[in-house]
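Forwarding the complex inputs:
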Amino acid sequence: MNTDTLPGTRKLALVAAVFVLAPIPIAGSGYGVGVLTRVLLFALFALALNIVFGHNDQLFLFMGGLGGIGAYTTALVADTVGVTAWLALPVAALVCGIIGLSVSWISARRRFTVILISILTLNLQLVFAEAFIGARDLTGGSTGFPYELFSISGIAGAVGIPTKVVLYYVILAFLMAAMVLYIWLINSKYGMAFEAIREDEAAAESIGIDVVRYKTIAGFVAGVIIGIAGTLLAREATYITPSIFTFLAVDVIALVVLIVGGIRRTYGPIVGAVVVEAIEAFLSNYAADWRAAIFGALLIVLFLYFRSGVIVTIRDLLEAYDLVSSGGSGGGGTPAETEAE
Amino acid sequence: MLEVANVSKKFGGLVAVDGVDFEIDRGEIVGLIGPNGAGKTTLFNTITGVLDPEEGSEITFNGEDLLTLDTHEIARSGVLRTFQIVRVFGEMTVLENAAAGALFGTDASVSQENAQRRGREALAFVGLEDKADMEARNLPIAQQKQLELARTVASDPDLVLLDEIASGLTPGEIEALSNTIRRLRDDRDISVFWIEHIMDAIMGTADRIIVLKSGRKIAEGTPEAIRNNEAVTEAYLGADNS
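Prediction (whole assembly, two chains):
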């Protein structure tokens, strides 16, 4: 384990630089920037899932619903209190954090298995989805309302670049902040406790680890990130409707992104989001009618052959052909080796 | 130091531990023996808060009521254990396992560097220092048990409960283990409560031995006295014949 204050700073800076430059080659293409933005958003959702599920075995299947709570709360707080969305967002994130915390606390106290937590959260997902439609006075029902908070167009006008590009950089800033938080968390005492709990809860308790406390912290952190990601997802769409926050639209994609990228890998969420969104974009351009079917088939292939994540599989391939020296993982601060067969 | 009074534990109709009383004082190595199913591990589990004993049971440690504490709080108050079926953190390195013990086993806040240093010390104590960077799951089971011991030592406990830590060892290794356990007390001021089936190991090391049979304490005394105790011989021979 690295003893630097933040291991892998250079690598993170490099990744950030790539994303900073990414919109330049496709300047002017609103579609291209949209795809890049979705990469960031789903990397953010998958990062939250990596903390709470990857490192903590708590499978949150209400990321869509929780993200929706974040998005609606931001809008409603900004509207009713009359403050800018920048001030409303922390309130919404806190609300989502508290929901995540409560779910984790109840599950940990009652010693729910990963299956029970996923059933509990999937039920909450359905409840939230119905509530978004039902609470017409607040949410505008299934028709929703325009969502152009954060006065980004003002900044865009001043700097002279499209609003979508400004939004992209805003989301990038959030993702990088979340990455810094993640790397710090996993290399801290918390990361050690998460690892111990994930491997053997009884042994973790026997050496003095408060299992309920650490699981609850993970639930809170994930809830905050999901709330922010949901708000940004609605902002990217510029219009909020309950259909943005369904199980299929958010949870399934985020879970696939995490598995494809590599669970418990520091850069798994980002790599997975790039791969999944690239496939999505390619298919909707060249095979729109068959998009869903081909996407599903590709996922089966990915799950069969890239189960430990594309990072690991590709590195193993490169090593097998002597293209890189072995052992130089550096991919993360965690012993993230997935069980290979 | 540890005071156990009238502790019972039932599973449905089965009485696993039945009104057991004993004390363990500072600087003592106490053995706990008995035929299979005597309730030894169940007794450990009630002391460490994994199982809640029946009404009327009393367990205190340095005057503190352990029955009101959770497992992790009991660990932090200085009572650490190892497991009969080994439970190391397999995907962590050997050093990380020991460091985790130092990091979480006390109420005091311990820095990661400090935890690593204490982890290394604990590994040296049980003789695993040259395995520090191995993944724990790659150790042989007998050494994983030593690692569990190192993990408890790293947190600087007052009392360790060892559950069949000598099983799977060669006679030479048992000798080394017995030495380690004596050094726990002599060098580290740690008391030991030790379940063991390997009589050579426990008879030569323990100051005092408690014998359980069918959940009841049937004898308590020095190894010499236990060896010559008729009830104990009968319990073991009876168990062999059944």
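Chain B touches chain A through 32 residues (CB under 8 Å).
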